[in-house]
Amino acid sequence: MIHVQKIVKAFGRMRALDGVSFSIAQGQYVALLGANGAGKTTLMHILATLSRPTAGHVEIAGYSSKKHPNSIRQRIGFIGHAGLLYDELTAEENLRFFSRMYGISDSESRIGQLLQEVGLLARRHDKVRTFSRGMHQRLSFARALLHYPPILLLDEPFAGLDLNATVMVKNLLDKFIAEEKTVLLTVHDIDYALYNAKRILVLNRGKLIVNKAANELRRDQLQKVLEA
Fold first, then answer.
1. Which of 18, 48, 164, 178 has fewest C-beta within 10 Å?
2. Cα–Cα distance between 39 and 32 in angstroms, integer?
3. Cβ proximity of 40 and 32 under 8 Å
4. What tens digit of pLDDT does each residue of 51-109 get?
């Protein structure tokens, strides 16, 4: 489903990613860990076709990111540090805009369903600029799920959320995973990664230093690797 081969991303002489390779099969839930500056967000942007690698190859759902980026975008839902939402549009207008981009035929019912699931149906006519961080992130999750993608790429999806918003987003994620879809997310919470993910990747200074099944790792081992 996701194949990454010897990815390099250079900014001048500095390599944010240095020969990263891994594969994720359909239906796998994979957590990507690493200290700040390890290259996690850079990698996620490349996978989401928001950035091109300096070298290497990415294939998602059978499509090359260099040759068919639009085909990949149709098959992924992405949440990054920026929510990719328009502050001056309402929640409903944002989702309607993206539904037109994706050519969704049942857009109105889909929008209503997702707003209900993320707890924002009552705020559907409010502009996004009036939303809290948690509400903004929940709407971003609705946007990412709008076009029924088989793959989710989530860069710190729980960052800045209060407890209620975190529980709601985790429940949505659990539902997505139960449908045997593919998830790659970055997260700082070691316990969450070990308990929920099937596989764990660790980046350190642009290099992939861990690629193992979660049940093969102990918390103290993982903590030591992350502190190295």
1. 178
2. 10
3. yes
4. 999 999 999 999 999 999 999 999 999 999 877 899 999 999 999 999 999 999 889 99
Considering just the CA atoms, what is the radius of gyration of the chain in Å? Answer: 17
Q: What is the pLDDT of residue 166?
A: 87
Residue type for position 72: I
Task: Give the H/E segment covering residue 29.
Answer: strand 29-33
Among 133, 98, 127, which residue's Cα sits nearest to residue 114? 98
**More confident: 199 or 178:** 199
* Residue 143 pLDDT exceeds 80: yes
- Token digits of residue 189: 């919470």
What residue segments make up the domains of the chain, in order of their start?
27-54+65-227
The second-level CATH assignment, the architecture, of 27-54+65-227 is 3-Layer(aba) Sandwich (3.40)
Are the C-beta atoms of 54 and 8 separated by less than 8 Å? Answer: yes
Reply yes or no on whether the pLDDT at 174 is more than 80.
yes
Mean pLDDT for the chain overall: 93
Q: Name residues whose C-beta falls within 8 Å of residue 123's C-beta, 6 or more positions apart in sequence.
A: 91, 131, 135
Q: Please, is 211 exposed, middle or buried when counting C-beta atoms within 10 Å of its C-beta (0-12, 13-18, 19+)?
A: middle
Q: Indicate whether 168 pLDDT > 90.
A: no
Angle of CA points 74, 195, 22, to nearest 5°: 45
DSSP string, 167-194: HHHHHHHHHHHHTT-EEEEE-S-HHHHH
Helices assigned H by DSSP within the chain: 40-47, 69-73, 91-102, 107-117, 133-145, 163-178, 190-196, 219-227
